[in-house]
TrEMBL record:
Any one biological process term the GO annotation gives: threonyl-tRNA aminoacylation
Name the record gives this protein: Threonine--tRNA ligase
Cleaved signal peptide residues: none
Aminoacyl-transfer RNA synthetases class-II family profile domain location: 279-544
Annotated EC: 6.1.1.3
Reactions catalysed: tRNA(Thr) + L-threonine + ATP = L-threonyl-tRNA(Thr) + AMP + diphosphate + H(+)
CDD domains for the chain: TGS_ThrRS (cd01667), ThrRS_anticodon (cd00860), ThrRS_core (cd00771)
UniProt keywords, alphabetically: Aminoacyl-tRNA synthetase, ATP-binding, Cytoplasm, Ligase, Metal-binding, Nucleotide-binding, Protein biosynthesis, RNA-binding, tRNA-binding, Zinc
Main EC class the enzyme belongs to: ligase
Length: 649
RNA sequence: GCUCUUGUAGCUCAGUGGUAGAGCACUCCCUUGGUAAGGGAGAGGUCGUCAGUUCAAUCCUGACCAAGAGCUCCA
């Protein structure tokens, strides 16, 4: 057989040769340094026969990060082996530890176990130490093909492995990987020797996980680890974790008094405190302005509606699991609204519509209620009652693409305003295999095509995810990366041919006949709760001036300056800015510290010098620390801050 | 919803089978100060809730409530 090397050279090798054979054929140094390889772009290990004619590259200790999924997988095995030894030392037989799956994942690996007694977090350092011992033993990792019968016999004690093996085809060989006395059923790939595994790993946590992810199955104990090619990367990762903790919106939400969640009110039902309410109001004001420019019309609809409304829309039938139970009043049933669209459809239907009226764009900051599983609730990012920046566009089919593009444009503008420049789009399309979708497949295909055309026109990266559509139509989700590189799903745009059908809404066309409009559902923020939660973490609580709940703190140096401070404050208030005077009996240093801790972006320090000349001394928070300007004329500063607020700079 | 962990003052957290402590925040007094903590005093808790064991429970047991991590889910 032959393989092709990166420089285009062909290499002749005996049949069944592995990447290690290829490396040896090139040179002994390379063979000694090799860790893994790629064949036709896929990661492979050094022990597996290469496919005939493959283009291969070798991964060596010079670029170990390229083999990250491989060493993470091998570390997973090493974890598995270490846990076996850990229970062995406690006196359990080796059969007592049963194993689920253990793949490599982003940044690390995990392994599921069925253990004779639960593993505690305190045990992790000891297990990690055993892992390092195993690495120190320099065990060769070998690969072997075994027949199905022999495989079943070898793992007879482990029902999970038996289940996995049973499902493999009868005629194909089953691969085992062995390191020392540890053997596991595994497809690979793996490192050639435990001694080559990087030391930059750490066991992080344990948790429960259902066998094969199905909640009807037994729960296994999962151990998570992170692993990198170098200590530097591991340190960076751990530092980012710390940073994420520091920015946690639940923590900042409490410290900055943005919101609270009170068990007496109900879980998943956040209370917006005065400071958080300012954030919300600034966001809605911003979006209202943008929507006004784009000819949206505001509407307001109630929080509950007749059950028949939701029967007609299909929400009652299709989402029965995640609706709040209906409320019976007199002889009628009502439901808390899980979506605003049925109400907007009825507003559309409230009068005859001409083709000249379309598109009709109805917008509402509408609060909806969904019964999320209690384990899913999380701060502001996953709640049971939330306000969508919702709008529904009723358009003629020929207007769909223009409207869709205009919505995309608005969305990109919104995200850029918050410095969320790293955006990708996810097109959720229908899974032809599934029957959860309603409507005509031809219409689906048309809508999917139009979405993809629109996204391509905008030129931003996108992926297509079959099976990710809503039941009534394809959708486009926006996924942004925040400053820490974490991905968040924000708003969504959905094309809907179904609801107009279900509610039988029409418009009169040029031809005098009734025609069916198409609907676009869209929410650039998604929900205000979630968006604010993400913004808190994105900014780490350091909001730009226009969003900051507390914009300006005036700090009199001594209390004889309080009156002057108050006159300045009233001028800021007159132009609608949020200002306070710190007239506490603290010293100035403590006042500065307090304003810093409260992340107030602008501090104005006023003493004798400032008062005499109607000046202020400005201290502003910056990402690097702070910036001071002394002897600034107050009228200039007022104009400057007012302009920054107005332009949302 | 499931598994595990946690629940002590507004916040962060010590602690004990004999009904509780620190720091910060808060209130008051002194201090009138120049860019991240001046000093002193005081107030503040049914130790998540309800049962049980015990002479005695914040501590042990159970149930419930809530939170956290993970799994499953997300129009």
């Amino acid at each position: 057989m032959h393989v092709t090397l990166p420089d285009g050279k062909q290499l002749d090798l005996p049949q069944g040769a592995t990447a290690l054979d290829a490396a040896k054929a090139i040179g002994p140094r390379l063979a000694a340094d090799a860790l893994a390889a790629t064949a036709n772009g896929d990661l492979v290990d050094l022990m597996t026969p290469l496919p005939e004619g493959a283009s291969i590259t070798l991964i060596t200790k010079k670029n170990p990060a390229d083999a990250a999924p491989v060493f993470r997988h091998s570390l997973g095995h090493t974890l598995s082996q270490a846990v076996g030894e850990f229970y062995g030392r406690k006196g359990y037989p080796r059969e007592a530890v049963k194993r689920g799956v253990g793949p490599s994942i982003e940044n690390g690996f995990y392994q599921d176990f069925d253990l004779p007694e639960p593993l505690k977090e305190e045990d992790l350092p000891e297990i990690e130490a055993i892992m390092r011992e195993i690495i120190g033993r320099n065990l060769d990792i070998t690969r072997a093909d075994v027949g199905k019968a022999a495989a079943l016999e070898q793992f007879a004690y482990d029902p999970y492995k038996v289940e996995l093996i049973s499902e493999l085809p009868d005629d194909e060989p089953i691969t085992f990987y062995t390191q020392g006395d540890y053997v596991d059923l595994c497809r690979g790939p793996h490192f050639p020797n435990t001694g080559r595994l990087p030391g930059a790993f750490k066991l992080m946590s344990t948790s429960g996980a259902y066998w094969r992810g199905n909640e009807k199955n037994p729960i296994l104990q999962r151990v998570y680890g992170v692993a990198f090619a170098t200590q530097k990367e591991l340190d960076e990762y751990l530092h980012n974790l710390e940073e994420a903790k520091r920015r946690d919106h639940r923590k900042l939400g409490r410290e900055l008094e943005l919101f609270t969640i009170d068990p007496l009110v109900g879980k998943g039902l956040p209370l917006w405190l005065p400071n958080g309410t300012i954030l919300r109001e600034e966001l809605t004001r911003f979006l209202r302005e943008q929507q006004f420019q784009r000819d949206y019309q505001g509407v307001v609809t109630p929080n509950i509606g007749n059950l028949d409304l939701f029967r007609t829309s299909g929400h009652y039938q299709n989402y029965s699991d995640s609706n709040f139970s209906p409320i019976t009043v007199d002889d009628e049933q009502y439901m808390l609204k899980p979506m605003n669209c049925p109400f907007h459809v009825r507003i559309y239907a409230s009068k005859p519509r001409s083709y000249r009226d379309l598109p009709v764009r109805l917008a509402e900051f509408g609060t909806v209620y969904r019964y999320e599983q209690s384990g899913e609730l999380n701060g502001l990012t996953r709640v049971r009652g939330f306000t969508q920046d919702d709008a529904h566009i009723f358009a003629r089919p020929d207007q769909l693409k223009t409207e869709f593009l205009s919505v995309l444009d608005l969305t990109v503008l919104v995200l850029k305003t918050f410095g969320l420049n790293d955006v990708r789009f996810r097109v959720g399309t229908r899974d032809p295999e599934s029957d959860k979708y309603v409507g005509d497949p031809a219409q689906w295909a048309r809508a999917e095509r139009q979405i993809i055309e629109a996204v391509e026109e905008v030129g931003l990266p996108y992926t297509v995810e079959p099976g990710d559509a809503a039941f009534y139509g394809p959708k486009l989700d926006f996924v942004v990366k925040d400053v820490l590189g974490r991905e968040w799903q924000l708003g969504t745009i959905q094309v809907d041919y179904n609801l107009p059908e279900r509610f039988d809404i029409t418009y009169t066309g040029e031809d005098g006949q009734d025609h069916r409009p198409v609907m676009i559902h869209r929410a650039p923020f998604g929900s205000l709760e979630r968006f604010v939660g993400i913004l808190i973490e994105h900014y780490g609580g350091d909001f730009p001036l226009w969003l900051a709940p507390r914009q300006i703190m005036i700090i009199p140096i001594a209390d004889r300056h309080n009156a002057y401070a108050e006159t300045l404050a009233s001028e800021f208030k007159a132009v609608g800015m949020r200002v306070e005077v710190d007239d506490s009996t603290n010293r100035m240093n403590a006042k500065v510290r307090s304003a810093e801790l409260n992340k107030i972006p602008v501090m104005l320090i006023v003493g004798d010098q400032e008062e005499a000349r109607r000046e202020v001394s400005v201290r502003e928070r910056t990402p690097e620390g702070h910036k001071e300007r002394k002897g600034v004329a107050f009228t200039d500063l007022l104009a400057e801050l007012q302009e920054r607020y107005r332009t949302r700079a």
